[in-house]
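Thread: assembly with ligand

MN 10:42: here's the input set. Chains plus the small molecule as SMILES. Want everything predicted jointly, not piecewise.
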Amino acid sequence: MRQHVIDQLRREGLAGVWTAEVCERAGYKCEYCDNDMLASVDNYLSWELDHIIPQSAGGDHTLENMALSCRECKVRFKRSWNPVYVAGKDANREELIFAVRGNIEKKRASWFRCLSRHREIVGWEESE
Ligand SMILES: [Zn+2]
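BT 11:07: finished. Tokens for the full assembly:
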């Protein structure tokens, strides 16, 4: 983590205490889908901090249990899903995030089947 970047973001009021560290650790990408949070205004406005193990499931409010997430991943897909169910209770942060990514990919794939069928029915074609 680049401490001078964290300090500058805080000085300019662009990130709160934890947000700066979480974002810097994540490389400014959603830790669940790699969405680049600096690529557009829409992405920039969709930054969220997520408790990897939800607080409702006993997850700590600590930097270790925080992940940078886009709003779609957090609100639409992950929600209060607990990665401990898949990764196990002794899993480390990396293993928990890997479990979340897998869960979200499954949900996205399921929605992609709906989207594909919808496209088929309406005769949608990608515009150039
Ligand atoms: Zn995401």
